[in-house]
Amino acid sequence: MAFDACCRLQDWTRLRVSDVSDANGEVGLEFGVRARGERCKTGHSQGVVLRTEAARAFVRSRSQSRPLSALVFNVQADQFRKQWYAAVKELGLAKDEVGPPHVLRHAGAAHLSLREKVDFKDIKARGRWAVDSSVRRYCKPHILVKMMAALPAAVEQLGQAFLQDPSSALRAARQVKAKPQ
Q1: How far is CA 136 from CA 2, 39, 176, in A?
Q2: pLDDT of the chain along its 181 residues, tens only?
Q3: Rounded distance, CA 109 to CA 75, Å?
Q4: Whole-angstrom Cα distance, residue 113 to residue 115?
Q5: φ and ψ at 65, to 5 degrees?
Q6: Helix or strand or coil: residue 26?
Q7: What predicted TM-score, i.e. pTM, was given to this entire model?
Q8: For residue 33, what are the contacts with CB-CB under 8 A and spacing of at least 6?
Q9: What residues does each domain of the chain span?
């Protein structure tokens, strides 16, 4: 979801069920809700519509049957960073090769340019960047290709399985983790 929406960690960790709109198969997210006195880096009431079915299904599953005031992702940013780095280590990757969770924002922008052929102006709007120089700093498709070339095949397969069916992939991962070593 953070990759799809080019999210900042502080945006999605504050996301409440009431900030998720689901209509006619589309899922929209609102960040920095003015009515709650919130602001995101580029202002109040910024938003994005999710592009992939995997991201839409994930957000829907996290939002269903929960109070409107509930957080969609019940995790603090520092806790998520620890989980992120633990997952990086578990996948056999080096922390400095992958980077922090914010890399999802970079990779999302690069992916839009490289794979989806989205133009610069639309990437800027999607990522909610205020200035062109920020988009150029984030949108570096050559780095995405370099990182993908170094990715172990098993990790790539896990990622593909997740994109096809996030719920099943997460269930399978939890089952593997629950088995005694």
Answers
A1: 19, 24, 40
A2: 999 999 999 999 999 999 999 999 999 999 999 999 888 888 888 999 999 998 999 999 999 999 999 999 999 999 999 999 999 998 888 898 889 999 999 999 999 999 889 999 999 999 999 999 999 998 998 988 988 888 888 888 888 887 777 778 777 776 766 555 5
A3: 24
A4: 6
A5: 55, 30
A6: strand
A7: 0.83
A8: 16, 19, 44, 45
A9: 2-63, 77-178
